[in-house]
Amino acid sequence: MQDVKELSVERHIAAKPDIVWRVMTERMADWWCPRPWTTEIVEQDWRPGGRAAMVMRGPDGEEFPQEGVFLEVMPGRRFITTDAYAVGWSPREPFMTGVWEIEPEADGTRYRASARHWTAESVEKHRAMGFEQGWSAVADQLKALCEGEAK
Fold it and tell me: Residue 70 forms beta bridges with which residues?
C-alpha cells in the first residue's frame, strides 16, 4: 500500500455541482487564499500540462508566486496541479500536488481539497504554515460564494 502524505479539508456546499465548479474555476481569485490576502491569476491553462500560475499577496505587501502545471482536469469533477514542474515539464523543487474535487451529495455538493507531499517533513512544514486554518478558511469562502450564487 502506498504511503500517501496528505493534508485535506472537506465541506458540504448547498449548491449544485455545476455552480460549485463554475465558481471554483471562473472565480478563483475570489476564494483561493484567506482574506485579507488576495490572489492575482497570472494564467490558468485548463488542460494537462497547462500552466497554473498565480501570485498571492498579503496585507503587508508579502508576495508568494505560485508556478506549476495541471496534471489532470476533469470538468465538473476535479483538477490536479503540482509545483514539481513548470510548463514544458521543466522539473522544479517540488512542494506538493494539489487535488480539488467535487461530487454530488444529497441536495448539494461535497468539496474536498487535498495537498499531497513527497516527504513527511514537507507535510509537517505545510501543517506548520497553517494548512488547516488557511485551507479551511478558503473552503468556507468558496462555500459562501457558491451558496450565494445558488440563491
Answer: 81
pTM: predicted TM-score of the whole model, two decimal places: 0.93
Q: For the chain, give me the number of helices (H) and strands (E)?
A: 4, 9
| Gap between the Cα atoms of 52 and 41, Å rounded | 9
The 8-class DSSP code of residue 33 comes to S
Report CA-CA distances (Å) from 44 to 50, 103, 143. 7, 22, 21
Name the 3-class secondary structure at 30.
helix
CA 91 to chain CA centroid, Å, is 21
Q: Is the pLDDT at 2 greater than 80, yes or no?
A: no
What is the per-residue burial (b if ≥16 Cβ within 10 Å, else e) of 9-48?
bebebbbbbebbbebbeeebeebbbbeebebeeeebeeee
pLDDT tens figures, 25-36: 999 999 999 999
Q: Using an 8 Å Cβ cutoff, are 9 and 112 in contact?
A: yes
CB 100 within 8 A of CB 109: no
CB contact at 8 A, 51 and 87: yes
